[in-house]
Structure formats: structure tokens, C-alpha cells
Amino acid sequence: SQQGEEDPQALSIQEGENATMNCSYKTSINNLQWYRQNSGRGLVHLILIRSNEREKHSGRLRVTLDTSKKSSSLLITASRAADTASYFCATARETSGSRLTFGEGTQLTVNP
Amino acid sequence: GAVVSQHPSRVICKSGTSVKIECRSLDFQATTMFWYRQFPKQSLMLMATSNEGSKATYEQGVEKDKFLINHASLTLSTLTVTSAHPEDSSFYICSAGQGLSYTFGSGTRLTVV
Description:
The structure holds 2 protein chains of 2 kinds. In chain A, 0% of the residues lie in helices and 55% in strands. Chain A has no helices and 11 strands. In chain A, the strands form 2 sheets. In chain A, strands 2, 4, 5, 9, 10 and 11 form a 6-stranded mixed beta sheet that branches. A 5-stranded antiparallel beta sheet of chain A has the order 1-3-8-7-6, with no helix packed on it. Chain B starts with a strand and ends with a strand. In chain B, the strands form 2 sheets. In chain B, strands 2, 4, 5, 6, 9, 10 and 11 form a 7-stranded mixed beta sheet that branches. Chain B has no helices and 11 strands. At the A-B interface, strand 4, strand 5 and strand 10 of A face strand 5, strand 9 and strand 10 of B.
């Protein structure tokens, strides 16, 4: 079962704008990960943030984690049309090898 | 980086037949692989955890006799959908862990007619 909720479910923006997606979860976690999925394809790992971290950056991506609120956000800055995809958060309760529990996902559309 | 190869990417089969989906880790050994199912515009639902050399662990509500999982080597896990029905039509994705993150196959679109 899915433990995460993501909002918004769908987001449409113009190229150059920033996109923010939020994720909430219910249980304690070891880490939280964000993935991207292009239509009809597999998932690509974007970034991982550990439970003892609060913020992490990778290129145009910025992830925050608030374990007290059991929530995370993914910010994509200076968006591009190629960023159009579904974005999922996933939580892992333990270290390596544990199952991931996915959020419902956000469909991002970046209009040229 | 780590690559997980999943085949076939698309398959159409008739009701009542069986379909095998393969998932291979190309440049690393995967003692554990995960099989997910995804309906259109929905998230991934974990079906089962495949363990090399032992029986798979199925999630609640997943029929183990219908979705047969074999993980005979450290680089290969297979999912066989037996006696497929139209309601089994879905997108199936495998993944394998690499440290804390996971690498996903490209998915298999199964259509049962």
C-alpha cells in the first residue's frame, strides 16, 4: 500500500519557472528518495536524502526533508520542457536492501 | 552506473496464456529484486520481493500462484504471469538495490486480449 501523498497531483508551468512538489509520509524512515518517470518508461533515481539531513542539492534540484512533519519537497529550478515527467517520492524504512514505498506522484508539464 | 535490463518492453498475449518477464542486473549482483505493478496515471504498487536462492515474498493480496517469481542467479529475476486475464494488463517494473538507491528496469507493458 502507498504511504505517501504527493501534491499537487498535476502541475503545469512555463519554461524557466520553478516547480515545487511536496510529499508526505506516515512512518519513520531511514531515507527518502525522489524518482522521475517519463511516460511508459522506468524510473530514474534523482536524489536521496537521509533522515538526518534537512536539505540537499543536485544541479537544478533541491530537496528538503522535515521529519517532524513527515514531509519532503522537491524543487526544480529554471524548468525546461524536457523536465516534463511524473515525479515520485519513495521512502525506505531501513538501510540498503529494504523495500521502497512510493507516493502517488506529481505529473509535471513544462510548457515551452 | 548500475543498469537493470528488463525484457520484453511490450507484450500482447491471449487470455489464458502465460507471459514471462525478465529482469537482469548487468553490471552488479542483486541478491534482492523488487517487482512492481503500475496502472495508468497511478503510482507503483509493490507486488513481491525476489530473493536469490529462496522463495519470493509476496505483498498482501498478490496471488503467488498467479505471479510466479524466480530468482535463480544473482543477476536474473523473472516474473511469470500465469493464465493471464485482461485485468492483468498493466505496466510491470522491476528494480534492484545499489547501496541506498535503486535502479529500475524500463518496464514491461502487458496487454492481455
